[in-house]
Amino acid sequence: xxxxxxxxxxxxxxxxxxxxxxxxxxxxxxxxxxxxxxxxxxxxxxxxxxxxxxxxxxxxxxxxxxxxxxxxxxxxxxxxxxxxxxxxxxxxxxxxxxxxxxxxxxxxxxxxxxxxxxxxxxxxxxxxxxxxxxxxxxxxxxxxxxxxxxxxxxxxxxxxxxxxxxxxxxxxxxxxxxxxxxxxxxxxxxxxxxxxxxxxxxxxxxxxxxxxxxxxxxxxxxxxxxxxxxxxxxxxxxxxxxxxxxxxxxxxxxxxxxxxxxxxxxxxxxxxxxxxxxxxxxxxxxxxxxxxxxxxxxxxxxxxx
Length: 305
Ligand code: PSU
Ligand code: MN
Known about the structure:
By secondary structure, this protein is an alpha/beta fold. The protein has helices spanning 9-16, 27-30, 37-51, 72-80, 91-98, 106-116, 133-136, 141-148, 164-173, 205-217, 238-255, 262-273, 277-303, and strands at 5-7, 21-24, 55-62, 65-68, 85-87, 102-104, 120-122, 152-155, 178-181, 200-202, 224-227.
């Protein structure tokens, strides 16, 4: 047992009785969507996972406590507080010492999932190498976290605000297997296809579960990335999205938006500028990813002795 972890009753019971658990991050709630859509999303994601036969564990740091599983009141706090900090890996011990609140990103959620013995984590998109990363060195800690923690991360790829070819190169350097779910192409979040080919495709979550199990059995550190294209009916129009993106990138340069502010700023502006269409697409892709995450979690559960 890790005494610094604070489990909700539901997650504790699931662990004690050996039921499958899927982790969810909280940056998506605090910084990924406007209120109140974000609160509804947080509740919907948990309810959908329960319907899929797995127990949800939303992760955050509240008053310095590392929380695994949140109450509706705690989800509301994350959704409503416009100034919630965004905790990357390195922030965890500082926030614990200072007894502060923060939403967890992919990197910090993976760390907590690993501590908690949770093998599957579902999100929308991962961070990556930012454009001009070769000058700024702005490479999300998410990529290194994937090389360190033995967790299957299910996402819809990454947004083309990032440099996607460089992101894939770094994942290769750090030894992270990438699996396309029923696709041979790396998905680009709002778009089904980034135009970048993947080496491996799977047809069912149980294949991802088997790969993760082998990776652990042969003592290779780190996790795997399972990428699921946004459902066709929810995909954005490519030209329209690229035009929006160019305008916003320009704006960000003018306003000097850099570092960890990039993703929240971009998401917020996209949501405004698209008249809410990117919110709908984002909701659809996260919900779609849940089904794949539940497949993996159920398959890992069946393989347990
Ligand atoms: N991509 C999204 N929505 C998000 C994020 C990424 O489409 O909310 C969040 C995730 O929590 C991810 C983080 O881990 O942004 C990456 O931030 P950074 O680039 O600062 O590492
Ligand atoms: Mn960064």
